[in-house]
Amino acid sequence: MPPTPRAAARPLRLLVLAAALTVVTIAATLLPVGAAQATLPRSLDWIGGKDLYATSALMSQQLGGASTVYLTSGESGGDALAVPPAAAAADAHVLMVRRDSVPSVVAAELRRLNPRTVNVVGSRSVLSDRLWAGVRAILPRATIRRVGTNSGDRVDSALALARDLQRANGQMGPVAFIIGQNGYSDGLATGNVAARLGAPLIPAMGTPSRWAQRVAPVLQEAGQVFFIGSRSVLPEAYMDALYQLIPGDVERIYGSDRYRTNAAVVDRFVYGVGADRVFLIAGNGHGDTIGASVLATELDSIMMLSGRTCHAHGAIAQQVDRLDVRRITGIGTKHWITSDALRFRLCGGGSYAGTTPRFAPGTVMGQPLANATSFTREQQWAGQRYGTFRGIRASGQAGSTLIALPAGARSGVVTLTHAGTDVSVESLDAGLGPHDWPLLDYGDRTRGATGVFLSEFRTDPAPRYLRVEADGAWSLTVRDLRHTPMLRWSGTEDAVGLWGGRDAWARTTVLGDSLSIQQVSFYYWRDYEVLQGSGGQSVTGAIDAGPSLIVIDSDGTGDDSWRLQVTAR
């Protein structure tokens, strides 16, 4: 086994995100588990044009239309590394251009998109006024703006992009990433993860103390700032300088090479993906891959580094295997990343074959369930906070049933229908021990009750199964928390809703035997009781400003109805 990538950290005041777990492959039919098969190799394809400009246009075409475009340099790529989070937050496309001109293939794509806003990334020395004039000739009605300053550096561009990200998301978010001035591949690979999390990506360059003074104002809301890469790429002096100026904490994530660093970042922050596909890019810094970070994010996938013809070790392959996807897409032509690389051929001979998943005897597998394609801002935040995965549907009859959770399902929402009079659903860990509080526990029929299972911290045990105990026919779905509905004011079942509002009062008269409401904050790592009451009582409780989950547990004899009145406080 390759050595585990290291994470050197200072004492933490706030633990920010849960880690990825080692997960198992989920089959697509509701059948008892038979002999498991190795999960690699998989279906292969490429997105690549004759040059990096054509490739960027092809990736843009994969995403359909857009009202916003970011233009980045195909000749000096440093400014472009910080683009993916801002572009993904704005549902924008990324196209590459020359310093002084727009390649014809990119011009054609700009005409197809006809965006309202074009963001030119970098100073005049990176993308000149001649380039600006060329864009104006192609799009005479578009608003064109420079991201950064006319004579600034990559830090100026990254800070401007961070402000774009904040405007698009409505907040900066609790995490930020720092890359080294010469850590191009580390930045390239981290851009996709940052985009998935809605986190800014900023280069460290120049005098550490002066650099820290420039970037600290933007990072005041970050609970934790991650420095990506070894000390030779990203000196300790930058961590020391920033640590003194921000309220959050700093941590370094790195491996013995760029591929292990990439694998460590993915393992830490990407629990699962909604797409049945991952993207591989050559780790030699080939420039046509910047837009792939945005493409992968928009498709709820992940982009990772690869050797051009083979892999020095299995670190990247292990992450692809963990995410349980079937399709591998290379970015660039087969010259830049070969079929052997996409098949995870090892440079020393042989190939990474994949794992053989194991489940408890009698476990059944859920049928795949397509994810939604449109989400509210609060639902997007839920995906960034708790991760995404491909949902499943399962059904069964009376008795006890063990269901394997999908790959990456550390936290999720379960919706249950049951025709009998007694049913319960609980999440279990790999040893079949309780993982969380019971999701749902009913003594009557239910149609559409919802419950959640959560892994708050990366050190928490990960769920692996759901167990259904029922006295009649049942069916359920398991989906990531982006599929949690917004908080409703009334209902007839246990329910979970998202709250994105400000501080409020919640008032209710308990209609059934009892009612309790819990709030789980996304970013402050606490859950607490909003209110609790018994039959006939009028009760009031405080809801804190979101984003958060609101969990409603209503119990009544034959009637679990509830109603809320929510007012500002």
Strand content: 25-35%
Lateral arrangement of strands in the main beta sheet: 1-10-9-7-8
Largest sheet: 5 strands, mixed
Distance between the termini: 56 Å
Instruction: Give the overall shape.
Output: globular
Q: Which class best fits the helix and strand makeup? A: alpha/beta
What share of residues is helical?
10-25%
Continuous helix count:
13
Mean pLDDT: 88
Oligomer state of the chains in this structure = single chain
- Low confidence ranges: 1-38
Total strands: 31
The rounded Rg comes to: 25 Å
Summarize the structure.
The protein is of the alpha/beta class and 569 residues long.
Topology, element by element:
Layout lengths: L5 E4 L33 E5 L4 H11 L5 E6 L9 H7 L3 E5 L6 H10 L3 E5 L7 H10 L4 E5 L6 H16 L5 E6 L3 H14 L3 E4 L3 H8 L8 E5 L7 H8 L5 E6 L3 H12 L7 E6 L7 H9 L4 E4 L8 H9 L3 E5 L7 H4 L24 E3 L7 H10 L4 E6 L2 E6 L7 E7 L4 E6 L11 E3 L3 E8 L11 E6 L3 E6 L10 E2 L3 E5 L4 E6 L4 E8 L5 E8 L3 E6 L4 E8 L6 E2 L1 E4 L1
Parallel strand pairs: 2-13, 3-4, 3-5, 5-6, 7-8, 7-9, 9-10, 11-12, 11-13
Antiparallel strand pairs: 1-10, 14-15, 15-22, 16-21, 17-20, 17-22, 18-19, 18-21, 23-30, 24-29, 25-28, 25-31, 26-27, 26-29
Protein name: Putative cell wall binding repeat 2
